[in-house]
Amino acid sequence: MTQRSAIRAEAARLRASFEAEGAQPVETAILQPAEVLLDLYGEDIRARAYVTSDALRGEQMLRPDFTVPVVQMHMEHGAEPACYTYSGEVFRRQEDDPERANEYMQVGFEVFERDAPEAADARVFSIIFNTLKPLGLRAATGDIGVLMAAVDGLHTSERRKRALRRHIWRPRRFRALIDRFSGRVPVPDSRAALLSMADPMSGVAPVIGMRQEVEILSRIKALQEDAATDPISENEVALIDAVLSVRETSDNALSHLRDIAVDMSTIQPAVDRLARRLEALETRGIDVTRLDFEASYGRTNMEYYDGFVFGFYAENRPDLPPVATGGRYDALTRHLGRGREIPAVGGVIRPGLVVELGGLT
Q: Which UniProt keywords apply (predicted)?
């Protein structure tokens, strides 16, 4: 049996196991409208997706993942609650790491459940956990929602909060914004000179290029408003850093986050959700005292997740990407549902990596 046929056989077994858990099998097109993905991710996605053009359909992308088209399908005509499974190839450009595959199989399990989100989190995680147990993988978990709640609790402008929320998945940019908004780094000379001008547009040459004068003026006004905003306090920066530094077993992480919530009450609802999730995981037989939790986990490669996140790793093969990943993406359903939303959580397994690690049978 060739490697490719072995991967397809493993994918079929995984999909069948998800069907046995009540998931409805679905298919999605390999070519996806680029407009939807660009609207969701911005132009950054071009750097990691294969883009083509069609005279009738416009820009198209080879499917970079399944979650977006599955959510679109569900929001258009799915019932509630719903559970889906799928398998097929996804395509990712790997120009920064040519050793990584740019085409590989994914098998997924997605749950749309309004009434018991923490139980749904536990269901998805435990099914994947038990499926992959023969491989002896390390499970990592986190919760983007805790950090989002911490940002929402900052005593600063809504504009600054939006900027921080937008860059939660870009840790370096997020840190640079925190340093700037707290006054830890000086204002660049060019910006200070611009802000000191009574009329920043006086003496400017005629506007050429893509930006209109009204857009330039709007940006200058935003910079002026930001300059007039008080810096984020050192105490609040310390609390953000405290949240980001939580990296313990899940039970100890919950205790630590409860302590932080005493001084940052806006994270309390997110901490309560974490507590309910851990209870639901325990009900499903997961030992949370041995389950790793990292508050900053998932910030570099899980852009549409906004709550619970997880991944499974082969510790004896640090050269491999995660064998499985997943998480909660409630905001994505709202975005693609044009205002309608339903809590949703899912995960994907890479059967190619399962085969490389020896398989599940």
A: Glycosyltransferase, Transferase
